[in-house]
Write a structure and sequence with these properties.
Elements (H helix, E strand, L loop, with lengths): L1 E4 L6 H14 L3 E4 L7 H10 L4 E4 L2 E2 L5 H14 L4 E6 L3 H7 L7 H18 L6 E3 L6 E3 L13 E4 L3 H10 L2 E3 L6 H8 L8 E10 L3 H16 L5 H6 L3 H12 L13 H7 L1 E3 L1 H9 L7 E5 L7 H18 L1
Parallel strand pairs: 1-12, 2-3, 3-5, 4-5, 5-8, 8-9, 9-10, 10-11, 10-12
Antiparallel strand pairs: 6-7
Helix pairs in contact: 1-2, 1-13, 2-3, 3-5, 8-11
Organism: Actinomadura nitritigenes
Protein name: LLM class flavin-dependent oxidoreductase
Pfam families: Bac_luciferase
Length: 327
């Protein structure tokens, strides 16, 4: 199982420094999310600041950019990284797309399938100068009189998925699958692997919090679980773990006015233990081993929701130390 990392930085310079430290510790890939920053600009900074590790987006929002823009950015990042770039895409949820980004939310799985087809077609043919046409119901490409006058560096396309529809789509069309940041071994085995195909890169995302005091590790990770428990889309995921009542309590706190990144107090230890890798370094290493034989890659990320920068730095340093031991 490959050990990989999702770096954090209060500045882009610190983000690159963290990515480089993870690479030096033995991380085989570093991944950049799209929430507090864009995905592609930090990926460019990290690609320029690292040497060996793959650089991936985990995930870039598929509908917030046109498929052609996504393809152009992926081609540039593949070139900049010397072929180390992985384009990880996801849909996000309805509220994020419509309210935050002002883009329509219609048949997201079908639209993502067509988006991937356009990205791949454009990347393969943009340098030829020939017309490019991909007709879809929800996404299309019709380009004439265009030629990208640079060599094309290929890149794989990974898709994120939590529910069965998106996970099955990843199994149908993607080179790899990226799990939600909360992904237990049980969910991986029962909810995802039956829908994925052999030979894919199976990337398990794991919110990770390490401290000599397990209670302190749980406290830091609670905000991550609370953030996602406030999103109704993930209700089935929490119910799978027998956490429906606990999720409802968190959602009620959110509806009562708590910030999405301020829900840690509403999260019980049972939820943290089920959905995150929290505890001492030895306990977390044992939890990582539970994915062996099922995942091909694990992506460790520090908790950030509701934490001050100093606490995130501490959490990040402990994860990078663990990567060094595991690698």
């Amino acid at each position: 199982m490959r050990i990989t990392y999702g770096p954090w930085g209060e500045t882009l310079a610190e983000l690159v420094e963290a990515a480089r430290a993870a690479e030096d510790a033995g991380a085989e890939a570093v991944w950049l999310p799209e929430l507090h920053r864009s995905a592609t600009v930090p990926a460019a900074a990290v690609a320029a600041g690292t040497r060996r590790a793959q650089v991936g987006t985990a995930i870039a929002l598929a509908f917030a950019r046109s498929p052609m823009t996504t393809a152009l950015e992926a081609l540039d990042l593949a070139e900049l990284s010397g072929g180390r770039f992985v384009l990880g895409l996801g849909t996000g949820v309805k509220r994020l797309n419509e309210d935050w980004h002002g883009v329509r939310w219609e048949r997201p799985a079908a639209r993502l399938r067509e988006t991937v087809a356009i990205i791949r077609h454009f990347a393969a043919h943009a340098a030829s100068g020939e017309p490019m046409t991909v007709e879809g119901e929800l996404a299309s490409l019709r380009v004439r009189g265009y030629r990208r006058p640079f060599p094309a560096t290929p890149f794989p396309v990974y898709l994120a998925g939590t529910g069965p529809v998106m996970t099955r789509l990843a199994g149908d069309v993607a080179d790899g699958w990226i799990s939600h940041e909360l992904c237990s071994p049980g969910w991986l085995r029962e909810g995802a692997l039956p829908l994925l195909r052999p030979g894919m890169d199976i990337v398990v995302s794991a919110a990770c919090s390490i401290d000599d005091d397990p209670a302190e590790a749980r406290r830091r990770a609670a905000g991550v679980a609370g953030f996602y428990a406030s999103v109704r889309t993930y209700a089935d995921f929490f119910a799978f773990h027998d956490l429906a009542a606990e999720r409802n309590a968190v959602a009620e706190a959110f509806r009562a006015g708590a910030r999405a990144d301020g829900l840690a107090a509403a999260v019980p230890d049972r939820m943290v233990d089920a959905l995150t890798l929290s505890g001492t370094a030895g306990q977390v290493a044992d939890r990582i081993a539970d994915y062996a034989g099922h995942a091909t890659t694990i992506k460790l990320t520090p908790p950030v929701h509701g934490l001050a920068p100093a606490e995130i730095r501490t959490a990040q340093a402990r994860i990078i130390d663990l990567i060094k031991e595991l690698a």
